[in-house]
Design goal:
32% helix; alpha/beta; binds magnesium ion; 7-stranded parallel sheet; 12 helices; 2 domains; 16 strands; globular
Amino acid sequence: MTVAELKPVTIRSVQLYPVALPLVERLGTSFGNEPFKAAILLRLETVEGVTGWGETSAEINPGYSAETMGTSLHVLQEFLVPRVLGKCVRSATEIPPLLAQVRGHPLAKHGLEAAVWDALARQNGLPLAQLFARYLPAGHEPRDRALVGVSIGIQPTVAETLGIIEKRLAEGYGRIKLKIKPGWDLELARGVRATLPDITLMLDANSAYTLRDAEHLRQLDDFNLLMVEQPLAWDDIYEHSKLQPQMRSDICLDESIHSANDARLALELGACRIINLKPARVSGYTESLAIYRFCMENQVPLWIGGLLETGVGRAANLAFASLPGVTLPSDISATSRYYDPDISEPAFELESGSRIRVPRGPGIGVEVQPDRLQEAMQRWRERYPYRVPALQGTPLS
Ligand code: MG
């Protein structure tokens, strides 16, 4: 079935459900520490009777991204959703042009586009990964499992970090990522390598350094790292192009890459050698496919990052991560690492070889549990009402 042969959907309604879910463990990064994961779940209904789900994984504070739960609710409700209502689409790649007059807001746009991808996959009886593969050359059929790793936040001591790493290794994770910041980097890497010289290890700085730290960062080369993620400013490519030639370790860009054009610029300038693709950060799977094709054509290692998505966003990212051009382990851990329970079923479980099975059913392959959704919306309303007084989402019918 080619894209032109897909059955279209007509978008009848989109409902927004802001939720807050307690995290099993807080994820300390160089920019903060929240006990709850907030998100907006989008339920899109079609005239044909199919329902698609998407997730806008904005945060409460503008930490990772400039967007927040408040901006996302506002922009979705006032500007994005009205642009797609009533539209008949055969391909979710028709959505970005409809939203192009709204500048920015990639996380919000991603949630809406993701709901359309899910609806179209369900309408055509295809698992989402199979639908993605329709947009790629032959030979890019999805695998039934995605290779994954685990991310560990900043801990009080090296000993505590080692304890968590050993627990994750015992669970079966084959790639360990540690968050670092100034004052918590060399000592950490040295301590971990002294005990675990052979594990697949990478570090993520979340923009905690400047180019003046180049000499310091070069010392990370001693620790046989898979990569060093986003050492410099969140909006920078140029200074990374000055840092990468000074380091043997491969730099991976995350926050700085918002489009296929950014990926091309970063690679041409030599700012990095690896790309972390967060579909939400690049405004959706249409742009994600463009980045995938760019990386495939230029042999750039690629992996899928995470924003602590609930099962809705995680399932779609897992489908994308199962495509063979995603060549490095992705940040998509088992559900139990984040939520107990998640908002959807079934939960994702880690299998041997540090892999997670991609759901086989149509669309994202997981189902939102109405009782848990209600509870998570209630938690949002109780905990965060003052942040968006006029926007509490629409009732669950
Ligand atoms: Mg990162």
